[in-house]
What we know:
- 39% of the residues lie in helices and 22% in strands.
- By secondary structure, it is α+β, with helices and mostly antiparallel strands.
- The protein is elongated.
Amino acid sequence: MSEKSQGIKIPTPWRIKRYYLYAMVTVIALVLPWIEVDGNHFFLLSFDKMKLHLAFVQFDMQELYLMPFLLMMMFLGIFGMTVMGGRVFCGWVCPQTVFRVIYRDLIETKLLHLRSRIKNKQKEPDMSKSENKVKKAIAIAIWTVLAIIAGSDFMWFFVPPEDFITYLGNPTDHMVMIGFILGVAAFLIYDIVFLKENFCIYVCPYSRIQSVLYDDHTVMAIYNEHRGGVIYDGHTKKYSKQKEIVAEQPNAECTACESCVSVCPTHIDIRQGLQLECINCLECVDACTTVMGKLGKESLVTWSSTYEIVEQKGKTKYFRTKVLAYMGILVLLAVAVGVMGSKKEHMLLNINKETRLYSIKALDDGKVRVDNAYIFLLQNIQNEKMKYYFDVIPPKGMEGKIKITKPSKPFNVTPGYKKKKIVILSTTDILANNDRKDTIIPIKIRAYALDKDGKISKKIVVYRNSTFVFPKADILKSAK
């Protein structure tokens, strides 16, 4: 992958490194939705089952308080990348760029030879030739298949693959899903085949944001005017040939080969300086490195900062205050998500007391039983049927005096369903002796499940605070 020419070692092109990263990202995107741990996915936002899977942990829709933190981490991560490495996200990770490379470099150039070579991205194929028209149709057909796969892959993060395959067996019952996939595929065909890099230039808002985030130490593709010479005066191109450059600037090293121009996917000339269209793909760096390397010189276009190349004030400072601030915030957000995720409850339980405070019943042994009724709304958020139990934890000194009389047996709850139960708490003991008013006794309800072995599950245990109302003394006396 590398060669020596006149003492200058030409390194592995950034383009090849990008290809490796693209391949890795593509494999991860296609494989990750299929990986399950205990029936949970790495990321799945299922509107069908009202579930969120995150890092192989299942959350109910009532626990979507994590999503804002995830979105903040995503945007701050991209902004932090921009502050440090310019539009490195666009050139190295963005699906738009990955898809364009697959279509333009792989399908059109390598497979079909519709384009003459990868290093010339400015020259479009001659579509007046019938042979090229056929190749173009084949290229679009191949990309259509890949676009449908990409649309399906995107859908797998909202509909799990196992359900997706089942749904395909009855497409008429799932036309929304089918329509969504076809809509995504149609957009990708128009975007990648016809809109091309114009999406990055005119549609994507990220290029407008970058100018606010850049500073003198932001790393980007930069042309060294001190060595190569000044080619542009503002927006006006002053020189097109090497002899013109050298005539005005004898020490200028730019050969005016314009390899950096012809290879640029967004059709800009990096020698003009920082431009919104630049996506930091570093194709221009590779082109100049090859040309200048053959002359025994270092590249005139490098991945560096204006502080180091343009202003020549010293080395680029990568870990400066702004970058460290972004890293600190991201760490704090990650810790917050981790802490909140670790406190996740593995069952959902809401307890509401009935409007009637209590009921009183005289017993045959002369005692009076006081009942409090509650409505328990329980949801099983596990992937299997669970058996649930309830216990009452009264204040200290009242242990065993308040018991659950209904339901008398544990009950099963099907995964994903909510179950409403009327629960009666009773006591025959005198918990208070107040002649003036009813006594509000704080209690705690413990709900838990049994695992497959019939033992109390260690993780499926939740506690809820509630109250038990005990009547005043004269009401108890009148009930006897």
